[in-house]
Amino acid sequence: MDRKRRAAESDGSLSAQARAQARSGGELRWQATTLPASLVEFIARAIVKNPDSVIVTEVDDGQLLELETDADDRGRVIGRQGRVAKAIRAVLEASRDGADCRLDIVD
């Protein structure tokens, strides 16, 4: 592992997916996302059946996060009566960096 990759891993600027790919010897993919977007992506990928279809887009200078998933996984992210979506929003608001963000789940 080269010094640049090791430094990027240690300071936390890589997403979990990029770190896992770097450890497995695969090509390092740099993802320029903020911490709130990374948090939402991490939680959503843990919930859905198809984690590769999870996309978090930042809008309005990071004030709005749009979460896109596969059509089959959308119900898992929303949950019964929106309980899972509310929980994701609560975790986002409780985090230091995501307190100013809103989360929309996009069709």
User: Please, what is the CATH homologous superfamily of the largest domain?
Assistant: K homology (KH) domain
How do the SSEs run, as a string of H and E?
HHHEEHHE
Helical content band: 40-55%
**The biggest beta sheet, please?**
3 strands, mixed
The Cα radius of gyration reads: 15 Å
Total of helices: 5
Mean pLDDT: 79
Query: What is the level 1 CATH name of the largest domain?
Result: Alpha Beta
How would you characterize this protein structure?
- By secondary structure, the chain is an alpha+beta fold.
- The chain has two domains: 1-31, no CATH class; 35-106, K homology (KH) domain (GMP Synthetase, Chain A, domain 3), CATH 3.30.300.20.
- The protein contains five helices and three strands.
- Strand 1 (55-59) and strand 2 form a beta hairpin.
- The longest helix has 13 residues, at 35-47.
- The chain is globular.
- Residues 26-32 have low confidence and may be disordered.
Question: Notable features of this structure?
Answer:
alpha+beta, GMP Synthetase, Chain A, domain 3, three-stranded mixed sheet, 3 strands, 43% helix, globular
